[in-house]
Structures are given as structure tokens and as C-alpha cells.
Amino acid sequence: MTSEERADDYDGLATAYTAENETSLMNAYYERPATLALVGDVTGRRILDAGCGSGPLSAALRDRGAIVTGIDSSAGMLEQARRRLGADVDLRVADLADPLPFPDDAFDDVVASLVLHYLRDWAPTLAEFRRVLRPGGRLIVSVDHPFAINLMHRQSGPRPDYFATYNWTEEWTLDGKSVPMSFWNRPLHAMTDAFTAAGFRISVVHEPRPVAAARELFPEDFPVLDTFPSFLIFVLTLD
Predict the structure, then answer these.
(1) Which residues contact 140 (CB under 8 A, 6 or more apart)?
(2) Residue 156 burial by CB count (10 A; 0-12/13-18/19+): exposed, middle or buried?
(3) CB atoms near residue 198 (< 10 Å)
(4) How far, in Å, are 4, 11, 234 from residue 82 at the CA level?
(5) pLDDT of residue 8
(6) What residues contact residue 170 under an 8 Å CB cut-off, 6+ apart?
(7) Quick check: 77 and 57 in contact, CB under 8 A?
């Protein structure tokens, strides 16, 4: 999560968002397990959880044997992460729109879970990810699927140009508090062009489905998510 768009008040939503993220269909039964499956065996690997939020992914990586560092621009979310993780994970306030506070070649993997779509310009952030990754390192990125976002907007109002990179906002209401959240949608080719321009090789492009357990837990929403993608996950490598 970044502070590029000040509308994104994760500090104010930290407690409620953390509770929601723990058990929600979209996070706990869809994006997070899919990302972890692609990350694979992480025993002994140094991993940067970029945009770690309240730390559920960091906790899962730690429990699988990784040496985890987490960064987020929201101090409120990092407070939640510290309660979850204790001293096991190095947690720092840092904005992905700025240079990262780490030396070159510091990590084996960078995981950016549902965070890049908050950024207008990916180039500086991807350059920093490349800098802090060792040769042969991996970047695992999950984002909102551009097809899903564009279709949602076509159905709900103006018909945006799929091939444009455009800003959109959505009102999030958690625990009785509503805040506008700001995102940037871009076409698939703009994503892949940004990755290759930053020096990454695209190893995997994955359109996940919810895990099977979600079918009984969320019977109304599961059929839609199981038949049309909401997320897109990339595994990128450095030669």
C-alpha cells in the first residue's frame, strides 16, 4: 500500500481491514493461497513482502521457513503486523513510490501482493525491486485483473478505453467507516511491457481460482469467481 493517493486511508481502516482480510473470500480463499502456491518452497530464502499490510502473507512465508522483511506506507497497518508477527519479521514504514531502504542484492524474492495497482507509474518501483533482488531472484506480483476491472466499469457506468491507463476510485466501508480508495487500471500489455522494460523475464502468467473450500463457505459468490478471473499473478525472474 502506498501513500501516492492520499485517499487511501489504510491507517483509519487498519483494525477493520485486518479482520476482514483474515477470512474474506477474495483474500483468504482466493488471492493469498494462489500467491503462496506460486512462491513455492521458501525455506531459508530472504523475502521482501512489499506492501505487507497487517502481515498475513508475511506470517505465512515465515511459517514456511522464509526470512521475511515487510514494508508498508501505512503505520497503522504495520502496527497490526507487529502484533501478529512480533520480532520474527523486520517491519519498516516505506513507500513503494520512493527508493527502498535496502542495499543491492538484499533479497532472493520480492512479493508484491495486490499493491502495484495503487501506483500510477510502475517504472521506478520495478527498478527498485530489480536493484534489491540478487541475480536469479524472483518477483511475484498479484494485481487486479484488467479485464475484470474494465468490464465492471463498462457495466456500471462510462465505458472506459481498455487500452488506456486510468484512475478509478471505490468507496470502502468497514466497521461503519467509509473511505475512498484510489486505483490505477492498465491493460495487460502495459503490465508486461513494464516488466520487460525493467529487465524482468516473465516466467508465469496465472489467472487463479478460489480454493475449493470457498464453494461451501461462499456459495453465492463462488460460482462467479470460479468462472471469471478477478486477479492476475505474475512470476518474474532476473537472469
Answers:
(1) 35, 38, 39, 109, 110, 111, 112, 233, 234, 235, 236
(2) exposed
(3) 19
(4) 23, 14, 28
(5) 66
(6) 180, 181, 183
(7) no
> Which of 238, 140, 147, 142 shows the shortest CA–CA distance to 185?
147
Q: Residue 228 contacts by C-beta under 8 Å, 6 or more apart in sequence? A: 148
Instruction: In whole angstroms, give the CA distance from residue 21 to residue 54.
Output: 9
pLDDT digits (tens, 9 = 90+) for 150-199: 999 999 877 899 999 999 998 888 777 788 889 999 999 999 999 999 99
The three grid cell numbers given for residue 107, joined into one nine-digit string? 533479497
Q: Give long-range contacts, CB 8 A cutoff, 24+ apart: 89-97.
A: 89/49, 89/55, 89/58, 89/59, 89/62, 91/52, 91/55, 95/2, 95/3, 95/4, 96/2, 96/50, 96/51, 96/71, 96/125, 96/128, 97/2, 97/3, 97/4, 97/121, 97/124, 97/125
Tell me: the pLDDT tens digits for 107-160? Answer: 999 999 999 999 999 999 999 999 999 999 999 999 999 999 999 999 987 789
3-state SS, 53-81, equals: CCCHHHHHHHHCCCEEEEEECCHHHHHHH
- 3 state SS of 183: strand
Q: Evaluate whether 149 touches 186 at the Cβ level (below 8 Å).
A: no
CA distance 149 to 51: 21
